[in-house]
From TrEMBL, chain A:
Catalytic activities: L-glutamyl-tRNA(Gln) + L-glutamine + ATP + H2O = L-glutaminyl-tRNA(Gln) + L-glutamate + ADP + phosphate + H(+); L-aspartyl-tRNA(Asn) + L-glutamine + ATP + H2O = L-asparaginyl-tRNA(Asn) + L-glutamate + ADP + phosphate + 2 H(+)
Organism: Candidatus Micropelagius thuwalensis
Pfam families associated with the record: GatC
Name listed for the protein in its UniProt record: Aspartyl/glutamyl-tRNA(Asn/Gln) amidotransferase subunit C
Single GO MF descriptor: asparaginyl-tRNA synthase (glutamine-hydrolyzing) activity
Family: Belongs to the GatC family.
Enzyme class: ligase
TrEMBL record, chain B:
UniProt cross-references to Gene3D superfamilies, sorted A to Z: Amidase signature (AS) domain (3.90.1300.10)
One record GO biological process: translation
Enzyme class: ligase
Similarity comment: family membership: Belongs to the amidase family. GatA subfamily.
Designated gene of the protein: glnA
Catalyses which reaction(s): L-glutamyl-tRNA(Gln) + L-glutamine + ATP + H2O = L-glutaminyl-tRNA(Gln) + L-glutamate + ADP + phosphate + H(+)
EC number: 6.3.5.7
UniProt GO molecular function: ATP binding; glutaminyl-tRNA synthase (glutamine-hydrolyzing) activity
Domain (Amidase): residue spans on this chain: 27-472
Protein name, as recorded: Glutamyl-tRNA(Gln) amidotransferase subunit A
Subunit field text: Heterotrimer of A, B and C subunits.
Species, as recorded: Candidatus Micropelagius thuwalensis
InterPro entries: Amidase, Amidase_CS, Amidase_dom, AS_sf, GatA
Signal sequence annotation: none
Amino acid sequence: MSVDDKTVHRIARLARIAVPEEEIASLGTELNTIIGFIEQLSEVNTDDILPMTAVVETEIKRREDAVTDGGYVHDVTANAPASDDDYFAVPKVVE
Amino acid sequence: MSASKLTELSLAEARDGLRRKDFTSVELTQEHIAAMEAGRKLNAVILETPAKALDMAKTSDTKLSTGDGGALEGLPIGVKDLFCTKGVRTTACSKILGDFTPPYESTVTQNLWDAGAVHLGKLNNDEFAMGSSNETSCFGPVNNPWRNKDKETNLVPGGSSGGSSASVAAHIGVAATATDTGGSIRQPAAFTGTVGLKPTYGRCSRWGIVAFASSLDQAGPITRTVRDSAIMLGAMAGHDAKDTTSIDAPVPDYEAALGADLKGKKVGIPKEYRIDGMSGEIEALWQQGIDWLKDAGAEIVDVSLPHTKYALPAYYIIAPAEASSNLARYDGVRYGTRLEGENLIDMYEKTRGAGFGAEVRRRIMIGTYVLSAGYYDAYYLKALKVRRLISDDFKLAFEKCDVLLTPATPSSAFAIGENLDDPLAMYMNDVFTVTVNLAGLPGISVPAGLDAQGLPLGLQLIGQPFGEEALLGMAEKIEQAAGFDARPDVWWE
């Protein structure tokens, strides 16, 4: 498996991270090294093994579907870089 | 008591002194604030909160004067910057969070304040806790208080809880909070001659802690003694309805569990931890630990953890995958800094490109890659299956023994900059610690000796789920046998 420049561009796009053109090649090399390392896992036979998704076996907790807290709209938007009338403000998305 | 004495006290000694009214919390706190200010060269504290600390100390003194007060009443501690603290800037040491000031308090820190602890300040860490050297923080690296024999080179304090480990080693706080996703409590503790305890997954609430990899992250203390770790964990732990992975089980009196007899206890030695190229010093230290526990009455048994070799590769799939998902929330809309763009996606990309440091970008990209269409089964699902095999290895081993003894790190602290260009070499620092996170087990690093360079080395004990009491009891025996009382020369004041 080799990560080419096109793949680096694609991953960067999926991750929503702008990568300067001059860093694409070196980032590709780094990713290749790490992917080469993690590919060791293909040596392990995992037939009939269930994936482990939680380390502590627990029942899913349920609670009543009721409002227990809230009404902090100003707290929620207080740290926003741009907000207007307790709404988050973003660049126009619909013309 | 003279000015230098109060910062010499362990957490337990300071607690007992406060209760005896030998000194006040304001006196104790003032001396720790002075140590914090004198220790700025270490770069361990990235936000000092002296006014808050003195206010809290005054409140504690009022409580102590009437004989009230919690388990940590009046004791000044530092908080890793990954814990959200209400009204106090919290950044995870990332530029992307800017001047984020949480309108809420993490459950663990709330538990500590409820127990009476005094907040000295926020401690440096690797950006979003991604690192093993505390060199990826946007506030710059932390310097280890310890230096090797040449006395010139600044060494890393380990990571990601490097500010926590350095501040405790330099006696800036009596203890510190920390978090551990792949070794981030135990490795920095080993590098600074301190005690680092990573509890069982679910023992401490993760609510209000900036998330890195949610199925692995767990909060714990860094302290100077095993007893102090027991006291801190007792205050930090507990069920929290706000974290569905937090366990609804009573918190034992960990301090009372100390001093237990080791007769009849079995200590497992996993043969796979004797890795290629292991230094003679680490091997000798491990043997020394075996002998100490044997002398204390424990029985030594050989065990096998055959999938150990695959823990690091599995970790470097699972942790970045979860991180790429957790860090999706940093988009320049709800908090932190924003870079303007031509449209929404351009704004996201510019904000995230500029706001995340190189290591965080690298890990998000790896996570995105292993979760992307066509690779999910080959990498992510495979890693989850290997994770089960690693966990099953431990279950089998624990049929034969109560705890496991291993080295904590493959080496002592290295120089700042030494491993920066080689991510894999850096990742190898966690080779003895990541297995514990993958299996959700408790682990503790105890200072056990010095290497030829005069730098601390640690031994790790690994326990069964919720076996912190046995772990602490065993750790105390190593602490007593090692008699570790070495101190770094004070060069930073």
